[in-house]
């Protein structure tokens, strides 16, 4: 049902723009454009869909294993296995070469297919798709709400899983198993543990948890392809006064960022509200790219969607957008701290989806 | 995105092995008259760069610039804050960071030789944005496709690659052994993933055919799914950059099924590879392996025909469907294609 709603919306946008065929690329790193039209969550190889203005979809996959999976999971599409996917799609597009064609995201297309030497011209439809990906339908928001609930529940499991002596990858294994048990097929997750030596989060390592560690995680389960994120930090043992003082800055920054989320504000306004709190406490340096990547980002069919919350991103916020606001960065006294909640932009401001308290949690040492 | 263990072990991936692989590439570059070789990597096409350096991006993308004489350079879109992680999980002497990896790599190459001959495996499949930036960063660079050059270098698999594949297969086997008895399919998949990730898998994808008598196609499971009497589970497992698949048929109530007979037929068919004759009695079959950067690329099978000749000594994963005594079974395991007149053989028993 949700997939059909998305497809109707995309067809409407194509009609408005006068586009007759849109070419959508996806892989397991960034599969949101492809999933939007096909409802297929690609895991291996390249996937390219050709959506015609009459609603017909042909999905080309260069993995035979994935083609079989797509036939089972997304049977509404015509599935084509194509070892040379670029030439197979080109042969399809040659039949429509005199029509208006566009592609998204064009920068990810195989270079041979995007080459202007082909017998067709592919306009860039990335902005058109981005608008649809940014502004969610009510059913998309409903899926995000369920994903946020899953994130809350998984973080409760995370708190139980963190114990001295356990290795980071063993903790992540517990979370992944929990999510599969709940029927959740996908998650993006990174982790950090230690003290002032830790500059960020990464995939799990063999490092064992030690008493006194700050343990950070960004946990991002997906429901029907929609990723919702939660960021929290815990201490193994009792938190020190310095850790509590530092955490209070992050809590204030998150509250300020969420308060700035409202229609008419921009992504930059939210980032600035978060960063102003750090600047107030003399920590402005730690809001720069040397120490932190973004101050939050969009959520949806990709776990790191647009817009990025940065002080130079002027994307206006409108109702129906979903974001994670996270003032994650390094604190010079105690190390890397994360704290973030998924929110939806409503007419009245931010609706916070995460229910986990914004606490510096403590687990037994 | 990867969320399993990504780590680097000199015991499992000795420096000498990586040096030998790089030396093979450099020798081929000299013969082909290439000044540089550029290898693209992201988390769906990591195998070329990980074969030479051990580096696996958990997300984002990078280009490895391989020179004839100096150490390889990784140009990564991952930010500078991840530099220490890259250095800890791979064998790369120098890492540059740029959101425009094509532009930065081309500029670097052009700075030493504006019209350098640059070979790129899978040039046609390079993301258009990266390709455009290569042109902008080094307008006089002579870019050429190096797919055939690179594909010829990988086989035969060296002892390190075989050991990593065997370890990955052992992880998959142990994980699939957790499949029963469980209350439902979600519990089964959770147990399989917990075991594999707890054993140090870099990644695992579990696919299921929940009721083999209704549908033999394997899919990723979301939400509740009813389990038939006979079902199949496939574990696609990565361990330190090496991917394999193991596929097994199970019964809900533990009824014995002719796994040994199926495994014997699979082993017999595999022994005849690269000939497809051994699969004549199978309802479906597929052989996948790594040639360039995609870890498990289709090579030959009932649906795809013969796309690429199986190279002597190459590592592959084989999946097949068959019927025994009227019952459908799916089975699969990694295999090593024979070299020097040896028959191909399964790396592990698939049950």
How would you describe the overall organization of this protein?
The complex is a heterodimer of chains A (365) and B (351). Chain A has 365 residues and is α+β, with helices and mostly antiparallel strands. Chain A folds into two domains: 2-133, Creatinase/prolidase N-terminal domain (Creatine Amidinohydrolase, Chain A, domain 1); 138-363, Creatine Amidinohydrolase (Alpha-Beta Complex), CATH 3.90.230. Helices cover 35% and strands 22% of the residues of chain A. Chain A has helices spanning 2-17, 32-38, 64-73, 85-94, 111-114, 126-134, 138-161, 168-181, 241-260, 267-280; strands at 21-26, 47-52, 57-61, 78-81, 101-104, 122-124, 186-194, 214-223, 226-227, 230-236, 296-298, 322-325, 329-331, 335-337, 341-346, 349-352, 361-363. In chain A, strands 4-3-2-1-5-6 form a six-stranded mixed beta sheet, with helices on both faces. In chain A, strands 7, 8, 9, 10 and 17 form a five-stranded mixed beta sheet that branches. Chain A has a four-stranded antiparallel beta sheet with strand order 11-12-15-16, sandwiched between helices. Chain A starts with a helix and ends with a strand. Chain B has 351 residues and is an alpha+beta fold. Chain B folds into two domains: 15-153, Creatine Amidinohydrolase, Chain A, domain 1 (3-Layer(aba) Sandwich), CATH 3.40.350; 159-346, Creatinase/methionine aminopeptidase superfamily (Creatine Amidinohydrolase), CATH 3.90.230. Helix content of chain B is 30%, strand content 26%. Chain B has helices at residues 15-32, 47-53, 83-88, 101-112, 128-137, 147-153, 159-176, 185-198, 259-271, and strands at 36-42, 61-67, 73-76, 94-97, 117-120, 142-145, 203-209, 230-239, 242-251, 284-289, 297-301, 305-306, 315-324, 327-336, 345-346. In chain B, the strands form three sheets. Chain B has a six-stranded mixed beta sheet with strand order 4-3-2-1-5-6, with helices on both faces. Classes of the chains: A alpha+beta (365), B alpha+beta (351). Chains A and B meet through helix 3, helix 5, helix 8 and strand 7 of A and helix 3, helix 5, helix 8, strand 7 and strand 11 of B.
């Amino acid at each position: 049902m949700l997939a059909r709603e998305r497809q109707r919306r995309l067809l409407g946008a194509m009609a408005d723009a006068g586009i007759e065929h849109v070419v959508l690329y996806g892989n397991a790193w960034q599969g949101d454009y492809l999933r939007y039209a096909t409802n297929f969550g690609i895991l291996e190889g390249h996937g390219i869909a050709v959506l015609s203005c009459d609603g017909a979809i042909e999905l080309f996959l260069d993995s035979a294993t994935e083609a079989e999976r797509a036939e089972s999971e997304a049977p509404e599409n015509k599935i084509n296995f194509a070892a040379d996917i670029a030439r197979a799609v080109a042969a399809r597009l040659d039949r429509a070469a005199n029509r208006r064609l566009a592609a998204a995201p064009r920068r990810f297309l195989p270079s041979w297919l995007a080459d202007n030497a082909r017998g067709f011209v592919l306009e860039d439809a990335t902005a058109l798709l981005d608008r649809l990906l940014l502004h969610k339908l009510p059913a998309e928001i409903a899926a995000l709400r369920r994903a946020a609930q899953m994130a809350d529940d998984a973080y409760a499991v995370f708190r139980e899983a963190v114990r001295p002596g356990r290795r980071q990858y063993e903790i992540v294994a517990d979370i992944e198993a929990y999510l599969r048990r709940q029927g959740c097929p996908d998650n993006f997750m990174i982790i950090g543990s230690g003290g002032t030596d830790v500059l960020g989060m990464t995939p799990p390592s063999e490092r064992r948890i030690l008493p006194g560690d700050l343990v950070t995680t960004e946990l991002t389960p997906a429901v029907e392809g929609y990723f919702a994120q939660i960021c929290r930090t815990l201490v193994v043992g009792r938190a020190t006064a310095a850790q509590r003082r530092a955490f209070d800055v992050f809590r204030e920054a998150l509250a300020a960022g969420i308060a700035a989320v409202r229609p008419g504000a921009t992504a930059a306004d939210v980032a600035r509200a978060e960063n102003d709190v750090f600047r107030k406490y003399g920590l402005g340096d730690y809001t720069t790219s040397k120490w932190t990547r973004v101050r939050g980002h969009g959520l949806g069919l990709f776990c790191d969607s647009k817009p990025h919350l940065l002080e130079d991103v002027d994307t206006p916020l409108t109702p129906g957008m979903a974001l994670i606001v996270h003032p994650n960065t390094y604190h010079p006294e105690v190390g890397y701290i994360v704290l973030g909640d998924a929110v939806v932009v409503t007419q009245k401001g931010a609706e916070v989806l995460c229910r986990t308290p914004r606490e510096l949690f403590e687990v037994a040492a | 995105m990867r969320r399993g263990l990504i780590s680097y072990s000199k015991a499992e991936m000795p420096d000498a092995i990586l040096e030998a692989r790089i030396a093979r590439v450099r020798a081929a570059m000299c013969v082909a008259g290439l000044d540089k070789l550029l290898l693209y990597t992201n988390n769906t096409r990591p195998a070329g760069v990980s074969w030479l350096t051990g580096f696996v991006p958990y997300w984002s993308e990078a280009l490895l610039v391989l020179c004839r004489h100096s150490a390889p350079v990784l140009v990564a879109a991952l930010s500078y804050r991840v530099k220490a992680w890259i250095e800890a999980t791979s064998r790369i002497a120098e890492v540059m960071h740029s959101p425009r990896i094509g532009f930065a790599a081309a500029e670097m190459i052009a700075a030493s030789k504006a019209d350098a001959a640059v070979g790129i495996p899978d040039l046609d499949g390079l993301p258009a944005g990266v390709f455009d930036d290569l042109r902008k960063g080094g307008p006089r660079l002579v870019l050429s496709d190096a797919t055939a050059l690179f594909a010829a270098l990988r086989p035969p698999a060296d002892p390190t690659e075989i050991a990593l594949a065997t370890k990955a297969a052992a992880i998959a086997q142990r994980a699939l052994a957790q499949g029963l008895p469980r209350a439902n399919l979600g519990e089964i998949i959770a147990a399989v993933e917990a075991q594999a990730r707890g054993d140090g898998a870099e990644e695992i994808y579990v696919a299921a055919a929940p009721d083999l008598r209704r549908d033999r196609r394997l899919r990723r499971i979301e939400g509740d799914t009813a389990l038939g009497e006979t079902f199949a589970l496939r574990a696609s497992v990565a361990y330190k950059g090496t991917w394999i698949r193991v596929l097994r048929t199970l019964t809900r109530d533990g009824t014995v099924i002719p796994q040994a007979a199926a495994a014997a037929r699979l082993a017999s068919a595999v022994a005849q590879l690269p000939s497809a004759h051994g699969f004549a009695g199978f309802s479906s079959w597929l052989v996948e392996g790594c040639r360039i950067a995609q870890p498990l690329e289709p090579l030959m099978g009932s649906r795809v025909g013969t796309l690429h000749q199986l190279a002597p000594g190459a590592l592959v994963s084989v999946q097949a469907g068959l019927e025994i005594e009227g019952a459908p079974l799916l089975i699969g395991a990694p295999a090593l294609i024979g070299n020097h007149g040896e028959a191909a053989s399964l790396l592990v028993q698939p049950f």
